[in-house]
């Protein structure tokens, strides 16, 4: 019943469990302070944090295509399949505080502490693809297989409502003024491993059930924005900037209906 060789196409659904490890966020600010149009001080501060993100479990559609062929005179086979999963998994950390330590130079120079506060730190993985060569063993109506290969995933991160605060002379000041938003979308390389089994209803139609574990590399992005604020007769202008990074781990339990050609 299992063909000696075939191309195949399939569509199905999967249950996915996605985690977001190795998250890192660094933020810094530099500013010039003016009074009545004259510069009276210069300040800078920076710091980092490792945001904690929970996992996401969801159901998503997916598709696959591939080819397999038996070794001559054997029930063992080789092949490869390309899979696509519209994963759309996400996680959010609310009210993230990035500790800051810095100094300012003026007639009364000093050091200070503070925080860069985010209303939310969001990251998600949307599209996920993998190309996996595999080896398998066939029986009358089925074959079992295992394989591994490279993966590619589209990642998006949003830094929402970012404000820089400083505690100077026991007064907590909003240095950066209006909250800022930053966003980036990137493609992250990785690797995937899978094992699964098929069952052929006919020589042309079969169902494929599989488990796939995918790990992306740690992708990095930067952000930068201009700010201006006024308080107690002083005007602050400057730049808030930094970088952030993270990875994705996905476990996928998939079932699909396939047509062999």
- Biggest sheet overview: 8 strands, antiparallel, barrel
Major β-sheet strand ordering:
1-4-5-6-7-9-10-13
Integer average pLDDT: 94
Please write the string of helix (H) and strand (E) elements. EEEEEEEEEEEEE
Task: State which percent range the strand residues make up.
Answer: over 45%
Shape field: rod-shaped
Unreliable segments of 5+ consecutive residues = none
Q: Taking Cα atoms only, what radius of gyration do you get, to the nearest Å? A: 26 Å
Q: Got a strand count?
A: 13
DSSP helix count? 0
Distance separating the two termini: 13 Å
Oligomer: single chain
Secondary structure: helix percent: under 10%
**SS class:** mainly beta
- Tell me the number of structural domains: 1
Features:
13 strands, 261 residues, rod-shaped, mainly beta, 82% strand, eight-stranded antiparallel beta barrel
What does this structure look like?
The protein has 261 residues and is mainly beta. It has an eight-stranded antiparallel barrel with strand order 1-4-5-6-7-9-10-13. 34% of the residues are buried. It has strands at residues 5-19, 24-35, 38-49, 56-70, 76-105, 110-138, 143-168, 171-174, 180-200, 205-216, 219-231, 234-246, 249-260. Strand 7 and strand 8 form a beta hairpin. The model has no long low-confidence stretch (mean pLDDT 94). The chain has one domain (11-260). The radius of gyration is 26 Å and the shape is rod-shaped. It contains no helices and 13 strands.
